[in-house]
Structures are given as C-alpha cells and as structure tokens.
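Entry 14. Structure prediction run on the chain below.
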Amino acid sequence: MNRLLTLFSLAAALALPSVHAAEGETLYRQNCAQCHGDHREGGEGPSLSGDSWTKVKGDKASIAAFIASGSPATGMPAWKGVLNNEQIGAIADYLLAPNAPGAKAAAAAPAKVYPELANFRLPVGFTMSVFSDEVPTARSLAVSPSGVVYVGSNKAGKVYAMVSTKHDYVIDKVVTLAEGLTQPNVAYHDGTLYVGEIGRVLRFDNIDSTYDKKPAYKVIKADLPKDTHHGAKAIKVGPDGKIYIPIGAPCNVCNKENEVYSKIFRMDTDGSHFEEYARGIRNSVGVSWHPVTKEMWFTDNGRDLLGDNVPSDKLNHAPKAGLHFGFPYCAGGVLPDPEFAAGRRCNEFVEPMAKLGPHVAALGLNFNPGAMFPAEYKNQLFIAEHGSWNRSQKIGYRVALVTLADSKVVSDTVFIDGFLQNGVVVGRPVDVAFLADGSMLVSDDFRGRVYRITYSAPAAASTK
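Output returned:
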C-alpha cells in the first residue's frame, strides 16, 4: 500500500479476533510490506507504527474504507477490486492488533528472527541467511574488491552501501550514498560506481572512499529514453571495460526496430562511443559474462497476454555483436508473434539457449567464479526469477541454476526454492552477486533484504 495511512491512534483500538489479525498479517506482508516494511517500520511509504495516525479514525470500519478507496493525493492506490472486503477487513484487524509487529506495545527492539527461512530449500550443505534487511526494495547488486556491497533500489530511488567494517561478512553499517534518483541500477568497475537511471548514466569516482560522504557524481550519458515501461537501465560493465545498457521495449509488444528500443547498447566509461551491440530483445534486466570465455549471456522477459503458458522467458547467449534475438517477430524463441510476425520465421533469429518458463520474470544473473561452492558449481550460471505477476498460478519465485558445458546448456534446475510458500509470496529475488570468499548474495525487493548463501561440506556419515 503506497503511502497508506499516516494514520490513527492505537489507543483507540478495540480487542479484535486474533484469527483475523493473523490472516491480515499474511495479507499485509503480501501486499503492503514492500512499501511499509515487514514490521510497519516504513520504507517508500510511511511508518505505520507509533501513537498518532491522522488520516482516519482508529476503528476497523474507517481503516478498511481508507484501504479500499486509497488516497490519490499521497500515492496510495485503491485496493477495492484487488482485495475483497473480507481481506481488507483482515488487514485492518492486523493494523489495529495491540501486539502487531511495530505497535508501540511491541516496540522494544525485538530480536530479528526470520522464521520463513526454515521453509527455504537448497541443496545439501548450503545455508541461507539474511545479510541485511535495511535496504528497502533492494534490486541491483555490485560488489567492490574491498567487500563493499552497493545496492540499487528502484522504488526508493536510492543507492545503498552495505559495509562489514570488521571484514567478517557481517553487515554492521548501511549507508544511503545517493537518493532522489529514478529507478537506479548499479554497476562497479575499477574503483568507480556507475548508476543507470531511466534517462541517464551517472559516475561516482573513488566510491569506496566516498560512499559515506554524500559523494558527488558526473553525468556521463543524459539522452537515454525516459519511458518508464521497461525503462529501467540494468547496466553492467563487461570484460572489455565498456558499460552495457539494455533499453527495453516501451510496450507489451510493438515494433520499434528503427528506433533505440529493444536493444542492448554499449559505450566507453566516459559516455563516448555509444553503439548497438544486440537487438530483438524485449526486456533484459540481467547481463553477465562467462568468467573463462568472456562471452555475454542475458535474460529476456517474454511478452504478456498470450495466456498462462506462452511465451517463455529466455536465456540468451551473445558471443559477438550484431545478433538479432527475435522480438517482436518471434515470442519465446519458438512462437511467431500473432500480431507482429508479418511473415517472419523464428529460425531467422538466434535461438535461446534455455527457455526458462512462461512469465517467471527472469531478471539478474551471474556466474559463480569462486571456490566456496563444490567444484560442479564453478563457472556455472545462477538466475534470479522474480516471479509471475499475472499468471493464474504463480511460478518463478526462485533462484535457478543453469549448468553449462562448452557454452551449451546441460540443465536448468532449482537452486533456491521458497520465495513462494503455500501460494503466499514471501520474497521476490532480483539479482545475484558473489563475495570474495565465494559466498552468494541474492537481493529481494519484496522484503527489502539481501540474503547470503554459504556452503559447508556435510559431516561424513558414521561407518559404525
């Protein structure tokens, strides 16, 4: 609920059925926590904890009516038609419950416990923990050699630096280094942090020395499209030292072949020599390069409104410049688009290396270059699947492992499962990065967290 209530007095709350409050907590986490925080502490939207909420009276009917109708002036949408009356009432019960997380009665700094992690499933020997929960709507990740983790938050419009001051892989400082940005995505290269906004690219020099000093930046590219539909610029720096910039289609499906859209570009780190690298790409939010071959791999989200099961999101391989990946003529690599094929055939275009599933929203991806994980995971590819938004049965909501051999896909399997638990969304993975010790980081813009995945070999079984 964007900018919900700033809102009512808990002192006015009456005793309410605990069963409704429990159901309301689940609904709150699914629909409201992304803006207002897991524990009502606030984020993009205001805090819902404390004594004084001023928008409405402190009774269930008034709160439910406010949730249903929304508040256009504050940016909160109307939830009537999205949630039914019973669901809205359950959220109101939860917000009124005296012992709800964030209420003053429970505000005495409770220990941070993450019970939902117990239901995540990883291969034997792997452990998942919360690296930080102080990065609202965390999305893109970039790690410097000194271990500082930079995080871009699209909805908050901020860039964070997560720091382990003792270099023990425990985050004890989170700094907002830039704010007021438009959907910032981060990339690190050679001492510099690059930030891709919707319409421009910024450069923060000597970032590891200045992140906590509100660093100045230079605008190195200011003429990128400002369309918000697929407008986020998920930039990365390639092994050639150039910045790669995906520019998505400003639509569900449309033919913009003769314009700047539906392509990946690259440029020098000073913004010069801007050139097309690949085309026929609907919406790529993840680019990476194989540690050995140095060849590009990227995700591409398929179009909507052709049903639950088509087309598939794709994993693409671009070993050289000048390739065409099919959009808008071919959907998912196999289906001539019913609106835009215009006699074109899918075999004219580069075939996807893997079909990742319909509407899984495959976003960030990265190769594992480290040595912590077992040898079979070395130089293999991990993909964050954000999860479907308009499919009748949700899918995605996982981190996938794509195993390669000689630049061919051997298998596509689940590595982390549990962001969707019994049909309830408890997280949405966005990006993948690796720390110097070989452990993996996964961002989650639903919970405002970054997770860390480590590996320890299981103890040998007894031979008695």
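The chain has two domains: 10-106, 115-455.
Filed with the rest of this week's runs.
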